[in-house]
Amino acid sequence: MAARRTDRLQRYRDKRDFSRTPEPRGAVASSKDRRYVVQKHAARRLHYDLRLALDGVLLSWAVTRGPSLDPAQKRLAVRTEDHPLAYGDFEGIIPTGYGAGAVLLWDAGDWEAMGDPHAGLARGALKFRLHGERLRGGFALVRMGQTDRRGRENWLLIKERDEYVDADDPLRRWTDSIATGRDLAAITAGEPGRSAPEPRTSLPHAVSRTGADDEGSAVPLGFIAPQLASLAATPPDGPDWLHEIKFDGYRIQALIADGAVHLITRNGRDWSARYGAVVSALARLDVHSAIIDGELIAFDATGRASFSTLQHVPPDSAALVYYAFDLLHLDGRDWRDQPLHQRKAALADLVSGAAPAVRLSDSLDAPATHVLETACTMGLEGIVSKRRDAPYRSGRGRLWIKIKCRGNDEFVIGGFRRSRVPGRAFASLLVGAYEGDQLVYRGRVGTGFDEATLAALDERFRGLRRAHPPFARLPAEARRDAVWLAPRLIAQIRYAERTPDGLLRQPSFLGLREDKAPEEVIMPTPPADAECLIRGVRLTHADKVMYPGQDITKRDLAAYYEAHAERILAFVRHRPLSLVRCPDGRNGQCFFQKHGGSGLPRQIGQVDIPEKDGTAQPYLLVRDAAGLVAAIQYGTLELHVWGARADRIERPERLVFDLDPAEDVNFATVRESAFELRAVLSSAGLTSFALLTGGKGIHVVVPIARRRGWAEVKAFARGLAEALAAAAPARYVAQAAKHKRGGRIFIDWLRNERGATAVAPYSTRARSGAPVATPVAWEELGSVSSADEYTLVTIGARLDALTADPWEGYAGLRQGIPKGALAHLAEGWRAESP
Q1: Does residue 246 have an active-site annotation?
Q2: How far does Cα 454 stand from its chain's mean position?
Q3: By the 8 A CB rule, do 145 and 803 touch?
């Protein structure tokens, strides 16, 4: 064992000269270590090294563009040599040679595998959770086929959809070391850093994540990454949404414990000393401990909220008001998993009777369009619409939607134009926003300055002047009379609109922002339309959330079915199908539909099928990708298909054996049973295929020639199930009654009768986690840890990475059920039975 472990670091050592490099030589250590690190590495090409401790070494991937908290961003991760655990503490400069350049410890913490990590690595799909300083939540590493021509393993690093999803780029938010506070330039220059990480803002009180006060379940009460809203053109309407005023101020989280109050900005800065009036008002609330989310604003002389006034107001000013709009913790209970309307009700009770500096941001009881129109007429910034039944989830998503009356965003100041007016500090600001790692010019801002503001800005600019523009692309007109500045300051700018090329129209300066880093300032994505067109199908309410736990919208679902239409249609096209419809999403009411009805999209076809009484009934049918997308528009979350095609409906083309376990049967037993059933079918000359259902079980699917009728096929399926149950009664049952299944697996043969359906391969499921029914090769099944192994978040990467069809040969296989097969099998089982 020792030799095997030592060999794991041999490649690492062979690449380095330890007489020259400060990197640790290291040794294989305890296999129980589960540390995790990300190191920012300025080698020949800047990248981020992801390292996960397993079996005494750090498994390593070079993530070329760095990790992301956005599930839509699939980042290439190239597998590199294993590193020693000691490398997880390394920060410094690697000299000329292999990997030369500065290394910065960007993030660190622990990781936990979701399932068996060794099995996940073997099959090329490793799912895990990170508990780091900067990265948290679920991730997946998915291998993209075999090694490339240079012998490298290429993987994709993908964020799972959970409460830690955030469209903002963490690489821009954090550029320094968590260990020393230095950036790459400081490390390269040899500057000293702090000896230990600065402590996070925290309070002495503790709260239980579950809301109970049980000893041992408490966690420190501290800053929580805020929930953020997505921009939209029009507000969502209906009883599922609450609407609030969007304030023009600073997003502040108030942390209260035993009378001590901390006001924390969205990037974790403590501004308690700046706003004493608000701190005093919050300290007088009748509460032991709480975390409140809200917006700090200041009213100007006309009684309107003014960001400019907020810049200059003294700490004890009566103009300061903290508008509380959400409650995250209260007296030891974590409220984040409670529906918004319940959190708002508790918050209203908490702040009722508070001093004037603390007020409730109440929901407005009116149609969304009326609320927005009123807000815009009053000169307010806009509104925020929130799902009334949704939990609080850190990061940006579509549970909160913001709609603006006019543009109001942050921009980085990259220079100014000299003024021709004597005594005036400058004529206009030159501003931009980041796209990737480039600062892109967005225009000049020449209004919104009084004399005091001009003087204050001029003073701030003096230490920031530089010879060259910080902007990546700059029109010639912008260079005239320009003075360039290091991009350190952020301006809040109000504007009428953006031109087609992204420049601001009628911009006006409101003030400086100090609650963000310049690298966080990106040009906001233009609001998505309420409708969109996919494959000729118009999706209405495209941003409706269909899977709240994963923030998956109708648009996301339609995009999945469109992208993988050919795979799905191979199992769905021209077959009668039933739909599981959930018009209000997975958490709403769901129902099964097999016949056409009112509102059926024209892209979904129908076929008449005779019933037992001789009458014909129209059954649903999908012929192409447009039909799949139309099913999503219709509120569909699951597709279930017959075992026969519409052109020969009385001649089934497949057998399905659904291994449905009792609640007390683990998946390993189900998996073993699938292999056993495969062997049984193989002994009868039948080739079978495995489908992870996305629920709890496995479907063993047998394609057959269209020769036999329903009665014969059903009789074979029933006979096989009953014979297997008789041979192994401790494991199997062939009766559907759930009370008879205790500790056993029901071999559901009823899927093989006329009119019965089974979930289609690659169909989504109306279940928690957004699982997908996924075909797997028998060679893969042994390392699968659950029937819902693949979800809408991970299935795309799996399909992109496949080098072979997991059901290779299925489409062309036309096998007959051998005569006397059941008798042969039964005889074999009797011989094997004790």
Answers
A1: yes
A2: 43
A3: yes
- 692, 765 Cβ separation under 8 angstroms: no
**Token couple for 533:** 């067109």
Taking alpha carbons only, the member of 92, 86, 103, 83 closest to residue 43 is 103
Q: What is the pLDDT of residue 553?
A: 87
Closest CA to 253 of 293, 194, 216: 293
What span, in angstroms and rounded, lies between the C-alpha atoms of 693 and 758?
Answer: 9
Greatest Cα pair distance, the chain, in angstroms, is 107
How far apart (Å, rounded) are the C-alpha atoms in residues 428 and 623? Answer: 59
Beta strands in 99-214 (DSSP E): 101-113, 125-132, 136-143, 154-159, 202-208
Residue type at position 577 = L
Residues in the chain: 834
Residue 58 in contact with residue 26, Cβ under 8 Å? no
Query: Quick count: other Cβ atoms within 10 Å of Cβ 420?
Result: 8
Spatial distance between the Cα atoms of 325 and 358, rounded to a whole number of angstroms: 11
Q: In terms of Cα–Cα distance, which of 167, 156, 85 is closest to 127?
A: 156
82-91, 337-346, 654-663: the lowest-pLDDT one: 82-91
Which parts of 11-124 are beta strand (E)? 35-42, 46-54, 57-63, 75-84, 92-94, 101-113
Long-range contacts of 818-824 (CB under 8 A, 24+ apart): 818/684, 818/685, 821/684, 821/685, 821/686, 821/716, 822/716, 822/719, 822/720, 822/723, 824/683, 824/684
Instruction: Kindly report the pTM of this predicted structure.
Output: 0.49
Q: Which residue, chain included where needed, has tokens 């069809």?
A: 805
3-class SS at 64? coil
User: Residue 393: helix, strand or coil by DSSP?
Assistant: coil
User: 588: which 2 tokens?
Assistant: 């709403």
Taking the C-alpha atoms of residue 677 and residue 654, their distance in angstroms, rounded to an integer, is: 16
The alpha carbon of residue 162 and the mean position of all alpha carbons in its chain are separated, in whole angstroms, by 5
Q: Tell which residue, 698, 713, 722, has the closest CA to residue 816.
A: 713
What are the structural domains, with CATH classification, of the chain? 2-189 (no CATH), 223-404 (3.30.470.30), 410-520 (2.40.50.140), 532-641 (3.90.920.10), 654-828 (3.90.920.10)
Task: Name the residue type at position 626.
Answer: A
Comparing CA positions, the residue from 549, 246, 251 lying closest to residue 401 is 246
Within 10 angstroms of residue 609's Cβ, the number of other Cβ atoms is 20
Q: Which helix (H) or strand (E) holds 443?
A: strand 438-445
> Which one of 74, 159, 246, 344 is the catalytic residue?
246
Task: Extract long-range pairs of 269-275: CB within 8 Å, 24+ residues apart.
Answer: 269/514, 269/515, 270/201, 271/515, 273/315, 274/315, 275/315, 275/320, 275/322
3-state SS track over 311-323: HHCCCCCCCEEEE
Q: The tokens of 830 are what?
A: 């009797």
Tens digit of each residue's pLDDT (9 = 90 or more) over 623-647 = 999 899 999 999 999 999 999 999 9
Spatial contact of 360 and 242, defined as CB atoms under 8 Å apart: no
Residue with tokens 């040009």: 523
| Residue 206, pLDDT score | 31
Average pLDDT over residues 356-376: 87
Mean pLDDT value across residues 151-178: 83
Distance (Å, whole) CA 323 – CA 260: 19
* Distance, CA of 801 to CA of 368 (rounded, Å): 44
Residues 266, 263: Cα–Cα separation, whole Å: 10
Question: Which residues make Cβ contacts (< 8 Å) with residue 119, sequence separation at least 6?
Answer: 782, 783, 784, 785
Strand, coil or helix: what is 445?
A: strand
3-class secondary structure, 220? strand
Rounded CA separation 731/200 (Å): 53
Contact assessment for residue 447 and residue 494, using Cβ atoms and an 8 Å cutoff: no
The letter for the amino acid at 27 is: A
- Supply φ then ψ for residue 372, to 5 degrees: -65, -45
Please choose, from the candidates 336, 254, 337, 323, the residue with its C-alpha nearest in 3D space to the C-alpha of residue 290: 254
